[in-house]
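Table S2 (continued). Query chain:
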Amino acid sequence: MVQKNLIDGEWIAGSEAFRNINPSDTNDVVGEYARASAEDARAAIAAAKAAFPAWSRSGILERHAILRKTADEILARKDELGKLLSREEGKTLAEGIGETVRAGQIFDFFAGECLRLAGEVLPSARPNIGVEITREPVGVVGIITPWNFPIAIPAWKIAPALCYGNTVVFKPAELVPGSSWAIVDILNRAGLPKGVLNLVMGKGSVVGQAMLDSPDIHAITFTGSTGTGKRVALASVEHNRKYQLEMGGKNPFVVLDDADLAVAVEAAVNSAFFSTGQRCTASSRLIVTEGIHDRFVAAMGERMKGLVVDDALKAGTQIGPVVDESQLNQDTDYIAIGRQEGAKLAFGGELLKRDTPGFYLQPALFTEATNAMRISREEIFGPVASVIRVKDYDEALTVANDTPFGLSSGIATTSLKYATHFKRNAEAGMVMVNLPTAGVDFHVPFGGRKSSSHGSREQGRYAAEFYTTVKTAYTLA
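Corresponding output:
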């Protein structure tokens, strides 16, 4: 059975279908999904535009009920949906279920936000005049999501868009359509009026481009590569639309001489290799002061020997496969580049064979790296990390900030002085102390600086900055 696109409340077949393949077992077809055309995308945009006037003025209890019902079903089906996610993306079953729970929590949070919509009433500087400041929905929101968090990222974009009264045209990554289709199906059955949420699966060059070209998309939120993000920005400027970009990182994790070694190693392994390193918040630059360097590298090697790389659904697996062959080739190309640049491959980096055919890669750790190497400058997006030796905290901070990206930054230290200074001076949108650089809460703002992000923050109450526009109204008493 081919899963269809949702356009104006109807499930619509595409001109062709594409297969969703399990990276843990390439013989396993997760499902077949309809590929939307540019015409389908334009129809979805028109449906969202037509639905906007009524939905933007819908009651807060109606929106609350739909989002709450969606949250309840996601959480009730967390094991089923988590398994689907792990089959199509390759992260472990525990991670898949955890991500699904997070999606449910996001919908629950924004269900509550529907009931907390607020404004301000202020006195005017002029006598006998009142001022009201309110937030209104932006309009039709285009949502383009990546493959690495196939249910959480759609959730944290769709939920606030609907909460604040916008209508949506949603294009998920073609590599992982299953989780996105499931979440749209749940929302549709929860009672959304037709046209409020539209799903168009397919190629970015076709569906995504149609969205970028449309003057009827009033805001677009994108998570993905830096190159595509720049195209989104240019197209949005032409149409004078709001745009929000989350694009990537080359996140540092600093380890100081005074760090608790066990804490540092666990945080570094989690940051660099869990979720197969396929997180924009992953840390692939481990910046280590010379007093602890050798002990840290030795402890990392011992910890990495025990990592279990296998089928994402198999009990005991700690790291699943790379998402597909193209990404696997990119990872191995960077391992070769690191060697050519003079870094030492201290551990891993080998292709692995398991009981089923899949894209298995042993996590790789380089030592003797410098911050000028390509493996230290460019986002690899795989289980590959480099250790950069530095003299002291001051050099560590300088190296940590020496990157065009600025999403997440971490430090391992027992010094309150250094922890406090690092939180203030790390050039990143998020800072972690004695914690992995990856792993954030659903109710607080998410986003970075420099080339990592553009626009207002995602998640939590800060999401209102993007999904609403401010109106100031004056009344003569």
